[in-house]
Amino acid sequence: MKALRCDGPGQGLTLRDVEKPKATTGSVIVQVLAVNIESSAKHHISEHPPFGFPRPFTPGTQVIGRVSELGSDATKLTIGQLVLVDCFFRGRDDPDVQVLWGLSDGFSLQSKRFMADSWRHAGFAEFAAAPLENVFALNEDVLCGKLGYDIPELLLMQLQLVTYGGFRAIGSRLARESCGAGVGVALAMGAQVVALGRNLESLKELQQQYPQVDIMQITGDADKDTATLQSFGVIDAYLDISPASAAQSTHFASCFSALRPGGRAALMGVVGSSLPVPYVSLMIKNITIKGQFMYRREDVDGLIRLAESGVLKLGRAGGSEVVRSFKLEEADEALDFAEKTRGVGRLVVFEP
After folding, report:
1. Which of 85, 211, 227, 292 could form a disulfide with 169 if both were Cys (CB 3.0 to 4.6 A apart)?
2. How far, in Å, CA of 234 to CA of 116, rounded?
3. pTM (two decimals)
4. Distances (CA, A) of 152 to 65, 101, 185, 304, 351
5. Domain spans of the chain, in order of start
6. Tell me: the pLDDT tens digits for 147-182?
7. Which residues are within 8 A (CB) of 330 and not within 5 positions of it... i.e. 6 or more apart?
């Protein structure tokens, strides 16, 4: 089979003919039909990557495929079945050992060994091996038949999982949420949404896709922004997925301060420095702040059910589109194109 391999940071991707993986007990071999190419994919294998990975290594974290081969202990999946591969792999005997398949070998010696020994090769290939418990069946008749989605459009489910897990972690149901990512899944969960950001044009583009969403540009004046947030109504929950570059942003204080008494916040970003918080205000209002890394396994099932019910919109109906599809042989062009293709719901994919 063909697969894209990275031999180390800064060495790029090389297309190779390699042996197809074989199913063992506890694993599934998936024929890759579509895999997302993140806009940061080129940076992830650069000379100074943000995450560690074993060498050699096959990237590709978000996969929709078909079951090609099953281990002897599989009881529900069937050959040919359409599936989603959840990239958040955990150790079976120690769920605190966690890796992001095709992206990061985690933060401990155990997680690095776990990925290197068993799961170093991911979705930029014609076939990939994954743990049985990370392969989720999809109702193809509903998703691709009744709802009319193309296979690559189903990748949007995986892009929404982090947000879904964050809201579930803080017990969000029907409420007004303040967030800047995963708007589609927040709406599907019944929330009224205020989306924050610095780029007004991007916010307006988001509002065009989701007219029911309120938007707010961060001004840098924390008190003013708090008042603006509160003018939208009672803020029940705040989900934050800020990048490292947002470390000095004033929006943290604004969002914490805008929460109602008993409000909740989930921190899911990659800000490397400590955050100043309105200590007394948080205490008086009984605010809950929860750090949340990724999501729980049951959240994957929950999100799939939302999509299959038609409540969570995918594709153009959900404000997303597959901008372009590439073959593995076009890897250099694909990564360059993906790097330049940013924006909410704009997917670039490999279809091996």
Report:
1. 292
2. 47
3. 0.92
4. 10, 19, 18, 15, 8
5. 2-157+295-350, 171-291
6. 999 999 999 999 899 989 998 998 865 445 555 557
7. none
